Amino acid sequence: MRLGEIVAEPLRHVAQLTSGERDGRVEAMLEEVGLAGLARRWPHELSGGQRQRIAIARAIVRQPAFVVADEPVSALDMTIQAQVLKLFGRLQAQYGFACLFISHDLAAVEQVADRVVVMQGGRIVEQGSRDDVFDRPQHDYTRALLAAAPVLDFAGAAAGKS
To answer: pTM for this one?
Structure first.
């Protein structure tokens, strides 16, 4: 499928949308994620970051109230991760959807989360506000994860945690 078709797929069963309205919504969403004019391209023609933007566009084209983002930046380099996280935050603020952000990348979690749940072996070992979990971890596993995690700064560069 071409990119426009991929983004349009969730709209396929929205009966009240005309073909023109659907195409307009797809083009607007592509513009929102920084890929305006690429609707006729194929996925293999895109970089990993651009593909992730297509996945985000497809996830929010129907303006859902809730989005599950499972490892949304795991395969991206640090600079592209920062760009995608910034985009995700902007779209979440703009469209007002709640998000379950699942990640092993604590730097990414710290950038996007209001509340954090830490799991070990399928069990919740700690939960709380982002600030509580990152600044005042209570569980040994959480402390070990934080000690081992690189920090993603706002410029998008990786820095060792001191």
So the answer is: 0.82
